[in-house]
């Protein structure tokens, strides 16, 4: 994956650093996470945040091979 340096507001970096520490991420990964959520919310404005969050979690679980088959019966 290619990387690019960009300038960001120091307040945003400070907030990302705090959240990153709390959530065991690096500050750049926290900002990437926020960007991913923002993109998903803009692409799907009718979906609530909690649904988008659960979709991200479900995708991570699938990629980790941790999903269980659901029984509709």
Write the H/E string, N to C. Answer: HHH
- End-to-end gap: 43 Å
The percentage of residues in β strands lies in under 5%
Largest sheet: none
By oligomeric state, this entry counts as single chain
* Mean pLDDT across all amino acids: 92
Tell me the overall shape: elongated
Strand segment tally:
0
* Radius of gyration (Å): 15 Å
Portion in helices: 55-70%
How many helices? The count is 3
Quickly give the structural class: mainly alpha
The stretches of 5 or more residues where confidence is low (pLDDT under 50) are none
Explain what you see:
The structure is a single chain. The chain is an all-alpha fold and 73 residues long. The protein has a domain at 27-65. The protein has helices at 10-22, 27-43, 49-63. α1 packs across α2. The longest helix is centred in the middle third of the chain and has 17 residues, at 27-43. It starts with 9 loop residues before the first helix and ends in a 10-residue tail after the last helix.
């Amino acid at each position: 994956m290619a990387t690019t340096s960009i300038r960001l507001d120091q307040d945003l970096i400070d907030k990302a650093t705090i959240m990153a520490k709390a959530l065991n991420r690096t500050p750049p990964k926290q900002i990437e996470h926020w960007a991913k959520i923002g993109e998903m919310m803009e692409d799907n404005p009718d979906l609530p945040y909690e649904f988008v969050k659960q979709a991200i979690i479900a995708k991570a679980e699938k990629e980790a091979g941790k999903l269980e088959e659901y029984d509709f019966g």
